[in-house]
Amino acid sequence: MRLDKYLASATQMTRREIKRALKKTPAVVDGVKVSAPETQVDVRSVVRFMGEKIEYHEYTYILMNKPAGLVCTNREGRNPTVFSILDDRLKGKELFTVGRLDKDTTGLLIITDDGDLSHRMMHPKKHVEKTYSLTCDRPIPQSAVESFKAGIDIGDDKPTKPADLVISGIDEKSALLTISEGRFHQVKRMMKAVGCEVIALNRCSVGDFDLKDGPSVGEYRFFNERELEIVDKIKNQ
Ligand code: URA
Questions:
Q1: How far is it, in rounded angstroms, from Cα 181 to Cα 184?
Q2: Long-range CB contacts (< 8 A, 24+ apart) of 189-195?
Q3: Going by CA atoms, what residue is nearest to atom 2 of ligand 1?
Q4: What is the pLDDT, as a whole number, of residue 90?
Q5: What is the pLDDT, as a whole number, of residue 176?
Q6: What is the DSSP letter of 211?
Q7: Distance from residue 87's CA to the centre of ligand 1 (Å)
C-alpha cells in the first residue's frame, strides 16, 4: 500500500495533508527515512510519523451519539444526515451506518466503511441485542412485559422475537426495552401494539457497544481499544 494511503488511514489526516507533512518531516519505515508518498508500505511494517508510532487500521469505526433531527442515509435530501456532522476529512470515505435510527431517535450509532462488520451485526440470524430507553405518552401497562416476552403481533408476517421490557418504577411512562431484531420502526410499533405512543427514544447499546465512555449527544469519536477488540471478536466468530 502507498505510504500516503497508509498514513491517511491511520491518522485521519487527508492524503494532501500527509504529502505536505512528508515533505517537511519524513516518516520512518522499518528504520528508514522516507518522504515519497508513493513508497510501498507493508501493513506489518513498523512506521513512525511526526514523532508517533502509527497503528494501522484498515477500516474506520466511528461511535456517534446521534442527536435528533438527523437522518441515517447516504442520499442528500430535505433533512441533514448524520454524515453532515462528520469532519471534512472523513467525507472522502465510503462510510455508512450500521442499521438506522429514526430522525427523532437519539443515541448509539455506529458508522463505518467495514461492510463485513455491518453484515455480521445486522444479520437477523446473529440476534444482536439493542437496548433502548423510551418514554411514552401514558403509563405502560404491566401486561406489556409478558406480551413482549412471548412475542407480539405488530402487523408483520411473524410476531416479534422475545423482548425484555423493564418499566420504570418511578415513572410508569418510561422503560428500557431490549430487542434482538431490527424491524422498521420496531420499538414504536411494539409500544403502539400495547396502546402507547413513544414520545422519546434513545438507543443505549448495541451488542457489547455502549455510550458509557461517551461521546455526548451530537458528538462522535473513533472506537477505543476496547471497542476495536469487540470488532475483532465479532469478525472472528
Ligand atoms: N425502533 C424505532 O421505532 N425507531 C428507531 O429509531 C429504532 C428502533
A1: 10
A2: 189/154, 189/155, 190/148, 190/152, 190/154, 190/160, 190/163, 191/134, 191/136, 191/140, 191/144, 192/154, 193/147, 193/152, 193/153, 193/154, 194/140, 194/141, 194/143, 194/144, 194/147, 194/152, 195/138, 195/141
A3: 185
A4: 84
A5: 98
A6: S
A7: 26
pLDDT at residue number 93: 84
Closest Cα partner for 86 from 104, 64, 106? 64
Question: Cβ(181) to ligand 1 under 6 A?
Answer: no
Give distance in angstroms: CA of 155 to centre of ligand 1. 16
Q: Give the pLDDT of residue 76.
A: 87
Name the helix (H) or strand (E) containing 32.
Answer: strand 32-34
**Hey, what domains does the chain have and what are their CATH numbers?**
3-54 (3.10.290.10), 61-124+212-235 (3.30.70.580), 129-206 (3.30.70.1560)
208, 223 Cβ separation under 8 angstroms: no
Confidence (pTM): 0.88
Annotated catalytic residue, options 4, 30, 42, 102: 102
* Sites in the chain below the pLDDT cut of 50: none
Grid cell, residue 118, equals 455491518
The H or E element spanning position 201 is strand 198-206
> Is 102 among the residues known to form the active site?
yes
